[in-house]
Amino acid sequence: MVTRHDIENSHVVQKSKQDFLIQYYRLLSNYNPSEIINTDQSGVEKEVYSSRTLSAIGMKTIYGIVSSKNANTHSYTIQPSISLDGKVVGPILLCLQEVN
């Protein structure tokens, strides 16, 4: 989705992108690919369920069945770190059972 503000400031975003890439490629030559590391968090649900149901017309009460209430109210977060040469760096961080 794009707002009017996004459109009006697109030249600022493009300039910022160009400046970042110039600085990135300038610094890239100072490091080995194994020394450049990216990390990001990713949420993982133990059980994925749909919020949609299929029922006959006129049904007043509709139940959704899950195998575990806890598996649907808690999630895990993993955070791997990967070097520019494609190798996993160090252990993968894992946060257990965060309440959504």
Distance between the termini: 25 Å
- Taking strands numbered 1, 2, ... along the chain, how are they ordered across the largest sheet? 2-3-5
Rg, rounded, reads 23 Å
Proportion of residues in β-strands: 15-25%
Given helix and strand content, the structural type is alpha+beta
What best-fitting shape do the alpha-carbon axes yield? Answer: flat
Low-confidence stretches: none
Number of helices: 3
Helix-strand sequence: HHEEHEEE
Main sheet properties: 3 strands, antiparallel
Residues in helices, as a percent range: 25-40%
- The averaged pLDDT comes out at 84
What is the number of independent domains? 2
> Would you report the number of β strands?
5
Give descriptors for this structure.
2 domains; 3-stranded antiparallel sheet; two-stranded antiparallel ribbon; 3 helices; 23% strand
